[in-house]
Amino acid sequence: MRIGIIGLGSMGKRRLRLIQDNFSEKIVCGIDTNLSRRQEVNAEYNITVFENLEEAKEKFDIDSVFVCTSPATHETIIIQALNLDCHVFTEINLMNSYYEKITDLSKKLKKVLYLSSTFLKREEINYIKARLKNKNNYIYRYHVGQYLPDWHPWENYQDFFVSNKLTNGCRELLAIEFPWITETFSDIEKVESYSRSISNLQLDFPDTYSLLLRHSNGVIGTITVDIVSRTAKRDLTIISEEDQIEWGGNPNNLLAWDMNSSTMKKIELYKEIQHDDNYSHTIIEDAYLEEIREFFDVVSGDTISEYTFEKDDKIINLINQIEGLA
């Protein structure tokens, strides 16, 4: 497999590094319109770099791409990559107006179109999902937040796509969280949304959302999403008469009720954890690696994608409803 990593920012470098460290048989090149990024990646990772996709196809003969650019650029790049006979792995898109077009094109050209949904690969999520299977006698509350300028402290937040109203930070958090939430608690049947801005950040969209959700199986939950929290937050509590689960967002703070001892006990799921210190404690590399592995297995025909564009279409429509765009 000959892979082009399109977009050599933080996410492109993460995908590149994980492929190099874990799939040495894969041959990788980098693609970015930014000369300084190309030079940096060429020096640090010792790979060939190109300015555009056509050049990479012609000179490197790529057959697969990872789309790691700003979500607003994804539509054009995905269509171009498919038409150049490439399988496509794309980071979250945040917009879905073109989904029918690209899914039809991928089927026509018989190319894999794979969409990232990283938290579905977290061991903590899989544990929670298994523990709650076939149950609905519980409620949950969940808070996700981190101060927007801290997301990429090496650049001005206003130069980052999460400050764009169409691809804003709250929207991205919802797009990250809703796939595992619906897989775990069932489809969202009804949502009440309240939003406001409580910070001095220069943004043209709300920086805080509070949601009340009712799921199709009767479960009720509350979610707060913000880009204001000065400490990175993923704080989940699931409550029932017979059980309780608490998760602070990283592998070291998953707790569950032990009926025998009548205490909360720590759940150990990882033998070791890969973490990049440039990111918050709630972000680990393991799930990103598992997505890459699944993409390669889908391309080879050994499995099917856990997450699909059809599922994501529903998620983005829900987010549009919450933002008042539907």
From TrEMBL:
It holds the Pfam family GFO_IDH_MocA. It comes from the Bacteria. Residues 1-91 form the Gfo/Idh/MocA-like oxidoreductase N-terminal domain. InterPro entries: Gfo/Idh/MocA-like_OxRdtase_N, Gfo/Idh/MocA_Oxidoreductases, NAD(P)-bd_dom_sf. PANTHER family: BILIVERDIN REDUCTASE A. This is Gfo/Idh/MocA-like oxidoreductase N-terminal domain-containing protein. It comes from Candidatus Enterococcus ferrettii.
